[in-house]
């Protein structure tokens, strides 16, 4: 990715919490590069890495404006970036914007392209500990009640609702199965004692 894109994109993450800031973007970029290799091998195609990484860089750019609508705002931001029009074609910019708009785990509809599905998946490929840490940091920053057990219940409830066996999150491409141990995730989420061990470690209790 050229420096101009990186320089313009990172400004949207200044002051963001760790779970949704530049560390998260770095992790999603690493996930995307791994997915690109797997998909290229499996599909026998060549993907535009710069385009894909630009979508990663901008996918959470709308968070500071409105968390609930950040995916749609990110699409608007991409379309408004004049400098991108000197790098990508109109069709490529529209693809990047659409990838941003379709990246949320809570999206009920199918993604409209393989590239969108890849960003949707890359955004939620994490070690279990990292998943807990992101949620913990988010709630510690945004919840008024900082009591230990309250935050525990908030994090545990959120992750079960999202990533549990009957949760709303699902990976959009089977290629992601090569990078994620879903059964291990289910096992921990279905055992509160096991989950607490991870939570305690993240929260610095032990």
Describe the structure.
This protein is mainly alpha-helical and 206 residues long. Helices cover 59% and strands 0% of the residues. The protein is globular.
Helix count from the secondary structure assignment: 10
Rg over alpha carbons? 17 Å
Poorly predicted parts: none
Sheet-strand content, in percent, reads under 5%
Which whole number gives the mean pLDDT?
Answer: 94
Largest sheet: none
State the helical fraction. Answer: 55-70%
- What shape does the CA trace take? globular
Oligomer: single chain
The number of distinct β-strands equals: 0
Helix/strand-derived category reads mainly alpha
Summarize the SSE layout with pairings:
Elements: H1 3-9, H2 22-43, H3 49-58, H4 70-80, H5 90-101, H6 114-122, H7 128-142, H8 148-163, H9 182-189, H10 192-203
Helix pairs in contact: 2-3, 3-5, 4-5, 5-6, 7-8, 7-10
Structural key phrases:
206 residues, mainly alpha, 10 helices, globular
Briefly, what is this?
With 206 residues, the chain is mainly α. 59% of the residues lie in helices and 0% in strands.
């Amino acid at each position: 990715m050229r420096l101009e894109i990186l320089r313009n994109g990172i400004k949207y993450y200044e002051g963001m919490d760790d779970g949704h800031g530049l560390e998260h973007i770095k992790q999603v970029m690493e996930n995307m590069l791994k997915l690109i290799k797997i998909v290229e091998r499996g599909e026998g195609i060549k993907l535009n890495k710069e385009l894909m990484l630009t979508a990663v860089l901008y996918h959470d750019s709308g968070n500071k404006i409105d968390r609930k609508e950040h995916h749609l705002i990110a699409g608007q931001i991409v379309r408004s970036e004049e400098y991108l029009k000197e790098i990508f074609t109109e069709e490529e910019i529209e693809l990047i914007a659409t990838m941003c708009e379709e990246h949320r785990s809570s999206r009920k509809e199918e993604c409209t392209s393989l590239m969108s599905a890849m960003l949707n998946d890359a955004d939620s490929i994490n070690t279990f500990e990292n998943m807990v840490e992101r949620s913990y940091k988010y709630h510690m920053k945004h919840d008024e009640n900082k009591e230990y057990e309250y935050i525990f219940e908030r994090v545990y409830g959120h992750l079960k609702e999202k990533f549990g066996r009957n949760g709303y999150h699902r990976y959009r491409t089977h290629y992601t199965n090569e990078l994620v141990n879903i059964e291990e995730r289910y096992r921990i989420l279905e055992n509160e004692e096991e989950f607490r061990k991870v939570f305690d470690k993240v929260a610095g209790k032990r």
